[in-house]
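Sample A.
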Amino acid sequence: MSEYLDKAGLQVDHGLAEFVDSEVLAPLGHDSAAFWQGFAALLADYAPRNRALLARREELQAQIDDWHRSRAGQPHDALAYVRFLEEIGYLVPEPGEFTIGTENVDPEIATMAGPQLVVPVLNARFLLNAANARWGSLYDAFYGTDALDAPAARPGGYDADRGAAVIAEARRFLDQALPLREGSWTDLRGEPVPLLADEAQYRGRTEKGLLFRNNGLHIEVVIDREHPVGRDDPAGIADVVLESALTTIVDLEDSIAAVDAADKVAAYRNWLGVIRGDLEDTFEKNGRALTRRLAGDKTCQGEGGPVSLPGRSLLFVRNVGHLMTNPAIILPDGSEVPEGIMDAVITSAIGAHDVAGLGRYRNSRAGSIYIVKPKQHGPEECAFTNDLFDAVEDLLELPRHTVKVGVMDEERRTSANLAACIEAVRDRIVFINTGFLDRTGDEIHTSMQAGPMTRKAEMKSSTWLAAYEARNVAIGLRHGLSGRAQIGKGMWAAPDMMRDMVEQKIVHLKAGANTAWVPSPTAATLHALHYHQLDVFARQKELGEAPGLDKLLKIPLAHGTNWSEEEVREELDNNAQGLLGYVVRWIEQGVGCSKVPDIHDVGLMEDRATLRISSQHMANWLLHGVCTREQVMDSLRRMAAKVDAQNAGDPAYVPLVGNEDGPAFSAACDLVFRGVEQPSGYTEPLLHAWRQKAKEISA
């Protein structure tokens, strides 16, 4: 049981209170009593408003459900549907013309285009790797992945043939990004600065080589004749290092499992460590103890003198949404604290260390704190976030709009009212990003009563999805995000399929996104190649108007489709396997995001967004009689055996087969059979409840 301390009428977990007082407030010089008094007053105002917004979600959903049920068996009337959504306030009037007014934004967000990492805050090693992924070796990225179209490296040490193919491919990249006045990079001999076709691309000398810039991103050509590769290279080139992950989202939301005060303190402490610059992680690799630390800055000696370049990715922190509460703090009425409000206050207080210059390095050189706010439903909730951040700034004595916001466009009511959502945070917005997975889950849940949905694979070619992706960019551009904020696209989910990523992910740049998510530092380096191929800001000027709202609101129904029993089983198996493979790690091990083998044994990065789709899709088919409860249970049981086999090499794994009454299998069943009643189809309430039970069992 947690021990609580009274803090201005709040019952605060002892560990959280000690952490905030000693590690967060004391270095800032903030008085503890004044802080908790102010926090309590903030909660007295904003917790009821938070609850009212959640009640509004449920009210709208009930009206939409009733509308669809009352028209069961009738063809969908798109015009009547839009009028209905306007009448109930789901759709709001478009705002007039406006341009965002955000100021003090770092160039990595405003004027540069490049990859973005998302990393679970609870894994210190991954967090440090992501923060250090600002610079990445192109040689390593080619050598160790399938991105290079050449025979795989032979086992047993360095493969010289593979290495030669890597060097050749890297030289081809240099010829494309940094063309010489004459000849090719392959022909270079000696170490003088090569004569470029565009001399402005040369920036100067680094400690280990030459620095160049193309499309706003740096390229370091490492010269080192003592290095095993550089020793045998005619020009002494030992590596080509690319500026890679410009930004990283440190995630307290979908990629972690944090259900109580101990989990939250661990998350906040890692965020503080990376902001303060002293986070370390020691681990064993090949029988040796290694310690990971944050990288220092990179110095370039140019014609005008030395220039310091950031050695680390610029960090956002993703808070949780408005839905969940957490037992870390108990309010005077006995209820749990809204977790999103707690995140806003504490992650901002930690970010204030950076604003005050208390860390070893600076995160934001512009003096801003960057928070990504997910799962907001419409402009009312965005306005609430704006007001909340005002109150947080006042509590922490920060200048107005120090705390910036990234709005995840991943809920249907936000997509349909995106311009109004942007206007609600117009002076602090630095980011909009489409999230196909959560957006699909909400698409299914919002229209749950309309009828059976198409199969998951067909969703990717649906009318609403194409409109959603295009509208997000067009609306962002119309309201002045280009040059002031990021317009982002979603994750490449297959970390082992880098050749496919290199071939395909440039579509995000062509769509006008100046950042897109990647699953690893290596993927960030390979995705950086796309930003050298295409000038995103020039591309943004070529894009047209947004598709109409009618396309966005086209429900992906499958009326009139008669699937065979085999097709139904195939779809259920696909959903059940993905659901179980993710849930068993979440519930039993507290792993919120990992590479989970899919039904074809392909490792995919999974988080709660993919779980939301699988559970909601099965619930939808069950509701409309496409399948039966018995068929669902049959798939769950057979896929439990498959998931067990896929995890046979994990000594910490708790099998599903034989544990149908256990927390993991029970959670999976609840997610399907209670899916219709879950708020917005979210998985968090059930996951948290079953994870807490699993922790009690193992305690």
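Sample B, a different protein:
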Amino acid sequence: MSPPPDARVLAVWCPDWPAVAAAAGAGLSAEQPVAVLQANRVVTCSATAREAGVRRGMRKREAQSRCPELYIAQPDPDRDARLFEPVAAAVDNLASGVEVLRPGLLVLPARGVIRYFGSAEAAVRQLLAAVATAGVEARIGIADELPTAIVAARHGTLVPPGRDAPFLSPLPITELAAEPGPAERERAALLDLLHRLGLRRIGDFAALTTTQVTSRFGADAIVAHRLARALPDRPPAPRSLPPEVAVRLPCEPPIDRVDAAAFAGRLLATRLTANLSAASAACTRLEIRAETEAGEEMSRVWRCAEPLTADGVADRVRWQLDGWLTRPPGNRPTAAITVLHLIPVEVAPAAALQLGLWGDTGSGDERALRALVRVQGLLGGDAVRVGVLSGGRGPTERITMVTFGDEPAPDTDPAPPWPGRIPEPAPAVIMLDRPRVALEAADGTSVRITGRGLFSSPPVRLRWGRSSWRLTAWAGPWLLDELWWAPGAAPAARAQVELPGPHSLLLLARDDRWCVEGLYD
């Protein structure tokens, strides 16, 4: 059965928007190749950069070798949202019900604009012309369901009513991950698995039954399966919230600067989140409304793939106000903003948010990732490195440091057997500088490793700088018979000692000298 005509969705997609916004922000020409890098890898590039051989996921050095004139930009959500506001305003002047999904993508009900211009083709021509006046290229798609409309926009296709599933069926399975979402990594892993199982087209995946998908794959696979079958993205919100859930902020003094707008947005986001939490709800569609001293009213609706956290609300308020206040002359407000409103248009049960241990929504990890990416942007890609479990015998050998954002590939495979490897648990802290210590026997003489790989005397005391401890227990030594063929290679051994208190030490002996290699909690 075909859905009612007023249920159809029109999507406007601006290809490579982060790269387009970066070029516009830097004042570059349309012919200049541009790439946006995150964690030293290309996440978005312009069409001219792709023609030169630049691809998503490519490392910075390889991208520059293929395109020496490539302009490198860093991710900037504020810039992307600010420069997308004129595009949204141009569409809003011709059609009602515009909702911004993210900078570079917006949707609206198709029925009104089609009836106004007489046909879907005429509406598309008018909307493309309006977007072109903002200096941007776009593609438009129309379909029964919102996810299908987004895919159709990427192909510039107007899907006939009731034909969403046949339109999706022949497309590659990778189209299910073309639009980033909250479970981007899980979706990529799912599509890789489906490809290895021989399900290369969306129709192949859609042919599976719901029982087969739910019993074999994760939660994100259920969402992807509904998209492949062109089922509704999510049902309309059945509940209506009381008016007092919406928040209103009189601005004293009136807001005419972006920094003041960001502060007001953070305050309003906190209030709205508290009201929604008290009502056991979470916002999935948010209307941001502003009034000015001259009596002007501005409004924009943001639709979100997942319930908004306080940080998500604050980001969208800041982006929207930044876009309004920095519009070109003639389109921006003629007076300062005096009143701000945040109105939850659509809500979901609060259980849709995965709460953290202290009542937050897991946004701490997101803030930490943003901070790391920011450090990389300031100091370079190699300034932030993370450890990956590798193969080896000692704790230092078992860690491979890779640049944050790169593929976590170890130097050596940790799977094969490693005779002589330190048993679990591993030290909680690894001492890269390996500070010197002294291991003493009961008579005060130094303990060393004999030719048979044993202690010369039972260890009793450990001295570290000016401090000393009497050992409560010890284990070892374990002789390291490595690189015996190399000239000048000295025998080494490891031992574990327990000190009074919370710590135990992993010691390394080489050339009759002891040093601390790790600390156990």
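Observation for Sample B: Residues 429-520 form one domain.
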